[in-house]
Amino acid sequence: MGTPLDFCLTSWRQCLIQLGITLVLAAALRSAATTCFPAPAGLVGWWSGDGNANDIAGTDNGALLGSATITNAGMVGAAFSFDGTNGLVAIPDSPDLRPTNLTLEAWVLFSSLDSAGNSAAGDQYLVFKQNSSTNWSGGSFEGFVLMKVRPANGDTFQFQISNPNGQTITVGSLTTLSTGVWYHVAGVRGPNFAALYVNGQQEGWTIVNFAQDYGNWPLYFGSTGQSAWEHKLAGLLDEVSLYNRALSSDEISGIYAAGAAGKCKGVEITVQPQSQTVPAGSDVVLSVTASGFGLLSYQWQFNGLAIGGAVS
Q: Which residues are CB-contacts of 40 (< 8 A; sequence separation ≥ 6)?
């Protein structure tokens, strides 16, 4: 009694075990892959395709319609699968889906460069939100859209924004697309510009001088949702994410570089409790820092029992 207690034998884990102390994250702690990329700020919708069309960043859950399914052969876990005929995902309209500035990013793999539809040959709609226009047959009705198009030199990506007054900006990519290849594509709309990224690199940029406009229609994956002007997606779509700001080029390249690890969904302890030496009978103050997507919760335990109020 009264002699110093050696609280650090070899590592903090062994110290805590010898004192009968364990630390538990209530959110079913698991180590995040070291190569995953922290989800950037401003993420308002994240449809990972992991088993369903739920929004893991919020409450804007969608539904698989027609022939749309889930496959385990995604870029990051599972993914949405579309056969190019009548499959689509629909997410009901909400304020979260109407950002003034925005970034839209996803992984896509084409199983065919042709599909069912009546818009321009080679079109395939990946992610589509309509503006308030009702002129669906060739009009300017793209609130925002990521899609595939077919110019003379081969199939490429396109990011388009329109308003019901006919003002339209179009940003095209340089990369020529093939089947059976995963691509990361991101469309960015800032206060006065729009940009398109493919595989982490900016491939197009233009000025925008009109405000975003949205109608009351759903957010669609793999379709426009309108039979009058349509070409379905034939392929896989994964990790569809919508942000309410323009992501930086570093953030977009970081998401691409993470590859199959994707954006971080798990929980990781980033600052461990530190070993200490204190006199016997003295208090020991332990602290921990953790990171992970969503709201984390904590519960400290002693000898396997929760310590009351120790939840921060």
A: 243, 247, 251, 255, 263
Please report which confidence band the pLDDT of residue 137 belongs to, taking 50, 70 and 90 as the band edges. low
Residue 25 CA: distances (Å) to CA of 15, 73, 267, 289, 300: 19, 30, 9, 11, 8
Q: SS3 for 216?
A: coil
Residue 73 burial (C-beta neighbours within 10 Å; 0-12, 13-18, 19+): exposed
Distance CA 222, CA 266 (A): 28
* pTM of model > 0.85: no
- Give dist(CA 119, CA 47) in Å, integer: 26
Report the candidate in 152, 165, 162, 80 with the shortest Cα–Cα distance to residue 120. 152
Q: What are the domain boundaries of the chain?
A: 4-32+271-306, 43-261
What CATH code would you report for 43-261?
2.60.120.200
